[in-house]
Amino acid sequence: MRELTLILKKHTIICMFFSLSVFSAFNAQAQGGLSNGKVNGDFGFNGMYYIPDSTIGAEKVDSKVRANAHLNVNYTLGNFSAGIRYEYYQYPLIDMEKIGYKGQGFTHYYADYKTDFIQVTAGSFYEQFGNGLVFRAYEDRQLGVDNSLLGARIKVTPYKGIYIKGVWGVERKNFDFDYKDRNDYVRGLDAEFNLGEIFPKISEKMFILNIGGSFVSKYEKSTTDHYFTIHSDDEELKESAIIPADKIPQNVAAWATRMQFGYKSFILEGEYARKINDPNLSNDYIYKEGEAFFLSAIYSRKGMGISASFIRSDNMDYRSQRMESENSLLQLNYIPAINRQYSYQLLGNYAYASQPNGQIGAQLQFNYQIPKKSKIGGKYGTDITLNYARFHSIAQDTVPLALENGTTTGTEGYGSPFFKFGSDLLYQDIGIEISRRLSKNWKMILAYNYITYNLEILQGHEEMFHGHNVALDVTYKINSKNALRLEAQHLGSKDDYGDWVYALLEYSFNPHWIFSVGDQWNYGNADENQRLHYYNVSAAYVIGTTRIAAHFGKTREGILCIGGVCREVPASYGFGLSVTTSF
User: Fold this and answer.
1) Where would a tag sit more exposed on the chain, N or C end, judged by fewer CB atoms within 10 A?
2) Distance between CA atoms of 225 and 408, rounded to whole angstroms?
3) Can you say how many angstroms the Cα of residue 46 is from the centroid of all Cα atoms in its chain?
4) Residue 389: pLDDT over 90
């Protein structure tokens, strides 16, 4: 009870803000009455009972029963909306605790007024400029990412096709809500011009032309000297250095410009971003300016599509606080992973994590549909996807660090030719996927991938991984309500943990029930004692917007990646229950 009282006292101002906002909306639109307002929201619960298992490295935890939970409530009345979220992560799942995501309280609250001309938001909000190269505030609950801003946002549309938005706020830092003690905040401005909307004749001739630009500045007060170690392959050459507080930039600006051009079936999109000197923990306190370049081209017509992408990022790790590590959630920008994203279980163990501080690479994908009722395509046609992705480190010419009595005023760190690939291969994927409906009731997907993955740079292991992955996904529709799906994969490799096999059998009884049983088996591990099974049994019930799921089994230690953003996942064993619903 005492803990609850403290929580309520801590968030009194928040609750007052929310209440006054709703009251203002009622007062301003009282003529319509409460009945015209709409309440919606969502609730999520994800709990786990943990069982220690030394064979897979699942350690004993302080509290065997843990859970993550949240409740969102939003109210809309005319042009006005307001919302509030409560999160309970006091005893979080161990993967969330590992990244410091622990606490409880009102974490998200806002009031918003929107018309065709202007939108004004006060409180917590998410936003993205362009592709996110200089600014992206978003939420991904599965990754434990929520870097919303608490402050104000204004969006203006002064003329059709002209979109301007500005943001100001403090970035969320897990459950640390002592904003009065924060010495950092973010400011940003973005503008986009859709010339097809401004000049309709452009669209009439089937052209697409958009241009835009962004500017972001993060401020962090610097009051103390920074001590760090100069890294060297030779232990005896390592030195300690100091950057005086008055030599550390307090305002770090970043800007970006972007363009999108299209004609009929062809679209070309590009964005270039640059960040001024930003000495921080992730770049070893160098003063080199950062830059990122993203380019994508797509051509499609009936039955065929080709896409190609290129990306380069150099010293573009951009955070609210300079002392935060690379695993921190205080990330202001987003460097997209352009490689193909897979849902295959075994490939997920070697998913590529985008490298903001140094990567250059390209992706090429070709999609083709063999026509229906042809000799090769069959009655229903056949879809073929070919893809190739390759990423390297960037080439670097080191600039020596000059020290005077252990004190430095900064160094560029290194030089880097823009289009030159570095010597370290980070990731390569060569893949083919064939999807075909064999009959009215049978559908099959067959895929093959050859993966090269730099374990030393991406995961800290001292080796390169090479693996052949074959996946088969077969679905049999028994009748209008019953379906059976088999997913089987084999990852063959002489590196890391060796060979793996995975199988999943899923039965769905529409529209409510889904049952599955699956297992990962590391049968090719060089250590015979580590040839382990990671099995999982699950059941889910879906009714309306509510989903209730239970599972029992083991999870191997590894990484979880979504869209190039990754986090570590510890080994675990036990029984889990999750509930999600919206209203």
Assistant:
1) N
2) 11
3) 20
4) yes
Question: The dihedral of CA 459, 462, 468, 471: what is its sign?
Answer: negative
Taking the C-alpha atoms of residue 106 and residue 46, their distance in angstroms, rounded to an integer, is 18
- Give dist(CA 7, CA 297) in Å, integer: 51
Inter-axis angle of helices 2-10 and 12-28, to 10 degrees? 50
Amino acid at residue number 4:
L
Predicted local distance difference test score (pLDDT) of residue 232: 55
Alpha carbons 247 and 389: distance in angstroms, whole number: 41
* pLDDT tens digits for range 485-530: 999 999 999 999 999 999 999 999 988 999 999 999 999 999 999 9
Rg, Å, the chain Cα set: 26
CA pair distance 238, 450, nearest whole angstrom: 39
In our burial notation (b when 16+ CB lie closer than 10 A, e otherwise), range 345-376 reads bbbebbbbbbbbbbbbbbbebebeebeeeeee
AA letter at 501:
V
Report the predicted TM-score, pTM, of the whole model to 2 decimal places: 0.88
Q: Which residue has the tokens 């232990």?
A: 235
Residue 352 · residue 250 · CB < 8 Å: no
Q: How far apart are CA 507 and CA 518, in angstroms?
A: 12
pLDDT tier at 233, thresholds 50, 70, 90:
low
For 366, the token pair is 């070709």
DSSP 91: S
Average pLDDT across the chain, whole number: 89
Segment holding 393, helix H or strand E: strand 382-394
CB neighbourhood size of 196 (10 A) = 19
Helices within 416-529 (DSSP H only): 455-458
d(CA 568, CA 583): 33
The torsion angles phi and psi of 381, rounded to 5 degrees, stand at 85, 165
